[in-house]
Amino acid sequence: MNQYVPEAGANLLFCVNRKFLPLLVSCMRSIVGKGGYEHYDAYVLHSDMESGDTEALEDEFPETVKFHFIRVPEEVFEGFPETQRYPRQIYYRLIAPLLLPQDLDRILYMDVDTVVINPLRELYELDFEGNYYAGCTHTRTLLTKINQSRLKSEKAVAYINTGVLMLNLPALRQNVCLDEIREYTSQRKYALILPDQDILTALYGDKVKLVDSLRYNLSDRILNFHNADPANEKLDLDWVRQNAVIIHYCGRNKPWTDRYTGSLGVFYQELFQRITEAGDGCEEAAT
Known about the structure:
This protein is of the alpha/beta class. It has helices spanning 21-34, 51-59, 92-99, 121-124, 144-151, 169-175, 178-188, 195-204, 213-216, 220-228, 237-243, 265-277, and strands spanning 9-15, 39-46, 65-71, 106-110, 114-116, 133-137, 160-168, 208-210, 246-248.
């Protein structure tokens, strides 16, 4: 296996509709400020952005950030389960390797409700060890067999949180099949709860290299679960500030809403403050 040669820049992947553009801006600002690379190529998969949207997004960032917008025909995922909370764009990451330029070998996907607080290099440059993805699980071992039964998966694999994923693009191009994804979804349509996560776990869960959720996909819920276990050393915000890389405000508990409860919102507020002090302004985040 050829060892990955570190570069000065990193490839990033986002899948959004127009509603989430303000969050894409804040997420990308956190990456520029804390991600640790000299430049970024950000690939944005979408189906409803207009020229004014793309131009406004590009104007928000310096030349060290290069955006690449890829329109995905909406009919590609016609019939897939979707709701206001889980729009069609959640599926775009599943076929991203088939849409991205062939010369890319790896890319970091992030939901836009994430904030980067430390350098990404260790995650971005990891050895896939033959796996298609690197990602985290937010699910305890007890639920593994329950999910295995629900998803009709042949293997008991960790349930993957798809909010942060490293993609091994050469391996995925050879193995991802849209027809297979469509067939599985059609068969299990009414059993899917978190559709994209269910699909990825069921079809490719045994090809995911697990990385530490406390560092690379940390939510308030995961932090609380960890600290509630008497066997674990309690982690405070100082530990998070020094060791965590990506904070993920997953679920409905968002620090830009009045309903938020948790301790990790401080990192979003600090990002908001940096943006405001820089004189750039900050649009209200999408809910």
